[in-house]
């Protein structure tokens, strides 16, 4: 691949990401009256971050957390959330049980389920969930991120 082709590919990817971000901001503004979704904003506020402009997606949550002194690492492979790009179907309750067994002392987990983001502590309790479920939480986990303070 030549340098000109590489530059064009990068420019196309940047344009696609920009278009997707504009689309998600427009959706959030139409749906919630602001450019931020309640679940993503609540997760950011639970981490003690108050100064942010737009937070609509999981990517935005991770970006804002990283810029404010948090370390965010994907744990999809370790916790067997995804296999060859497809979600395995692990539920939030199954994930909470595994987190308790890990006994890892740090800040928490950012869990991405269909159309929603929640924050789970290292003890397996749900810290932030703007759409809580009574009893068993059977929502499928799409992505999982470990989050801790940078030292």
Structure description:
The mean pLDDT is 82. The chain has four helices and seven strands. It folds into two domains: 1-35; 38-149, Cathepsin B, Chain A (Alpha-Beta Complex), CATH 3.90.70. The protein is α+β, with helices and mostly antiparallel strands and 151 residues long.
By CATH, the topology of the largest domain is Cathepsin B, Chain A
User: How many β-strand runs?
Assistant: 7
Distance between the termini: 41 Å
CATH C-level of the largest domain: Alpha Beta
Please give the count of helices: 4
Q: What is the element string, with H for helices and E for strands? A: HHHEEEHEEEE
Assign the structural class, choosing from mainly alpha, mainly beta, alpha/beta, alpha+beta, or little secondary structure.
Answer: alpha+beta
């Amino acid at each position: 691949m030549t340098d000109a082709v590489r530059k064009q590919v990068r420019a196309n990817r940047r344009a696609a990401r920009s278009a997707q971000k504009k689309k998600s901001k427009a959706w959030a503004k139409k749906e919630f009256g602001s450019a931020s979704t309640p679940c993503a904003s609540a997760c950011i506020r639970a981490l003690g971050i108050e100064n942010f402009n737009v937070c609509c997606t999981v990517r935005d949550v991770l970006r804002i957390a990283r810029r404010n002194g948090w370390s965010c690492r994907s744990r999809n492979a370790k916790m067997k959330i995804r296999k060859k790009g497809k979600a395995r179907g692990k539920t939030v309750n199954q994930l909470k049980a595994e987190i308790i067994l890990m006994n890892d002392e740090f800040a928490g987990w950012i869990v991405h389920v269909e159309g929603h983001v929640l924050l789970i502590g290292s003890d397996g309790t749900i810290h932030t969930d703007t759409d809580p479920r009574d009893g068993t939480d059977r929502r499928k986990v799409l992505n999982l991120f470990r989050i801790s303070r940078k030292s």
